[in-house]
Give the backbone structure.
Amino acid sequence: MRIDVVSIFPTIFDALEVSLLGKARQTGLLDVRVHDLRTYTHDRHRTVDDTPYGGGAGMVMKPEPWGLALDDIAGGADPRPVIVFPSPAGERFTQATARELSQASHLVFGCGRYEGIDERVFDYAAGLGEVRLLSLGDYVLNGGEVAVMAMIEAIGRLIPGVVGNPESLVEESHEDGLLEYPSFTKPAVWREREVPPVLLSGNHGAVATWRREQQLERTRQRRPDLLAD
Ligand code: ADE
């Protein structure tokens, strides 16, 4: 999969050089290219923002650098990429979204800052690819970079070969609409706390039943909204 990221803080994405995604880049499973939006400006100050029409607090990202960046990265790309703009005003990004986007061959992420990007950029981008505005959750970050890092990690680990043992992808929170069951390792007693005896019983059926019950109980307690869905 090819992933392009456009940001005014490209070094934030240095973190993608480590761990499983770093390895996937080395082996060629992932081709990640990070672009500095300011390289698409032409003024002395490399300006990327301006005051909002109609007034109001904060600054808005200017359309011109975004237009040039998108032309360069997504213009004429075949197949047309999926172009993601992280935004607290977007649709919710879920495990299902991650699974869907993991099927794409080319993703472009545009990281907004300040009060957002001039709205016309989204319409222009729709001429170059499939545009998705996606929100990580109901809270506001200072910019799209951290949201994009999370999305790339959630999507990247679903690409076959990125996670060494594919079975570890199956029994995870949100894969079956429930939270994950609790996990334990040795020692069997630690600081007077015991591992649930069923896990030491060797009875695989009983273990499976217990884990399912734990999943349901945790989901009921922590995320009743998931059961309603
Ligand atoms: N940018 C700022 N806040 C965000 C959020 N909650 N999700 C995605 N992008 C964002």
